[in-house]
Amino acid sequence: MTVDVDLIVNCYERTYRRVLAPGFFDAVAQQNSLSARRHALINNVDTRADAERRAKELLSSGEIDSFAFVSDVIERARRLTGVPRHALRRRPYFLDYGLAMTVTGSAPWILGWDAEVVLDMRTNWVAASIELMERRPELFSASPNWHDRGSYEGTLLRESFARDGPFFLNWGFSDQVFLVRRADLARPIYRRFAPASLARHAGHPWTFENRVESYQRAVRRPRATLGDVTYTHPHMDEVVTRLGGRHGLERHEYLFLRGLRRALIHWPTDSPRWKIR
Hints:
Order of helices and strands: EHHEHEHHEEHEHEEEHHHEHH
Oligomer: single chain
Structural class: alpha/beta
């Protein structure tokens, strides 16, 4: 099966040197057994000139097809997705990179890839996922299965409500690695309300992750997770904690949403807007 995919890797100050080094994109393509156009998306770096120099070297060598700075494309992406400017006032880097992906590349499928994701086996899960999503257009996104350093967490069965072959259907969304149709992502989907998603993302409710999951839940378009293909991502303290924690309004929001999560776990409904599985 031939697939037309844009592989987009988001990087920032902590990760851009690794992403913009020779061999990184080749390794990601090999992990996924995938031929795709390759794009580096650069966000929130201290020294733009250094990141640009590294990206231009990869472009000249042919390892990537393009690079872009989020700051250069965010206004175009914001207009396309209908996200108001005020949504980017508080911790914009939790949201802007996802919006920027909508105007990066042109392929009908986007494979979003975090700089620190590593597949645990070499396999073309993308082709299998596209085949499923074309057969079932109600599916919004697809992903491999997450675990932490070889220890299977066991949350997939608990969070899923159905299966289709090796795929588990659920309402979650993660920005660590995801496959979506560009046409679905590049439109005004980012202002839907789903309390279950807010509660699940209590630590950072203003993010790209929460906004996409809220949409999926609000319109009942689930994610398909390929259960037997796993990836590893470093287990770290949440980013807000690493940046100095919450204060004032953010702390009150967090405590409220943590309480909401406890309440919704026992909420007597099957509505994905409200039900935390």
